[in-house]
Amino acid sequence: MFVFIIPFIVIRILYSLYRKFILTAVPVKDKIVLVTGASSGLGEACAKKFAEEGAKVILCARNVVELKRVKKEISGDENSKWPVVYSMDVTQKKDIDNCIQEIESNHCFVDILISNAGVSLRGTVIDTDVEVHRKMMEVNYFGPVNLVKAVLPSMLSRKTGHIVSIGSLQAVVAIPYRCAYASSKHASQAFFDSLRAEVCGEGINISTINPGYIRTNLSKNAFTPEGEKHGVMDKTTASGMPPEYVAECVYDCVYKPRNDLLLCGFFNGLGPMTRHCCPPLYHWYMARKGRKEAEMYKKKT
Q: Which of 173, 254, 262, 276 has the fewest C-beta atoms lying within 10 Å of its C-beta?
């Protein structure tokens, strides 16, 4: 397998050099940037980073109180024009459509969409209720789909725009006890890959960013098999990447457009590569991981 790694490393180095020295930068100053899930975690960090770079940021989430906090931390004044706060539930298509229509009427067309809102799950396939699977798909798949369909027409008519999907390492590699989450992220990844090919040549960039663990409240807010809040900060999440660092990477993928980014450590990055280059080894490792986590899961329950 390691023989196959060398060409990947060489290609990655060449691509990094191309992005650094040849690829034209696209400044975000005065661009309208809509961020979902902007009330905390990575969404908040992205909003602050793009505002810092001169973008006109639109903060969207369900928790308006927290959005106003983020607005004040960015501008220093709750009454400032920018950032703009909008209440949005990504599981409600009508909510999304009304919000985008209001934004386009009161401000301008969205130049950059950062689709960040998402939810995770902790539980086995057998224990997880089908309705929890549906909820996961509503947030992690249909939410981004409806957002894209709301902003894409104006981007196509203007021949410009950038859509960023914040996915997960589990969009490319599924692990035990995350079936519903990984399934929804796989679906989202496929949607954006198809979209990228469809709008090629239309002046629209599509970026899928799949990070590993980030130090946010994702695990605390994750669903249990019954659809309740998990309420626990997992060790892997607590030791994850700072959201500010990931936000820097998101900005970089917009400033110098990039199709996709797998953002994780070397060991975790081996997962997707092994999945394609040496499937038997990958399945052996996942079976081993499944047995190990099964013991931990039994202890918790």
A: 276
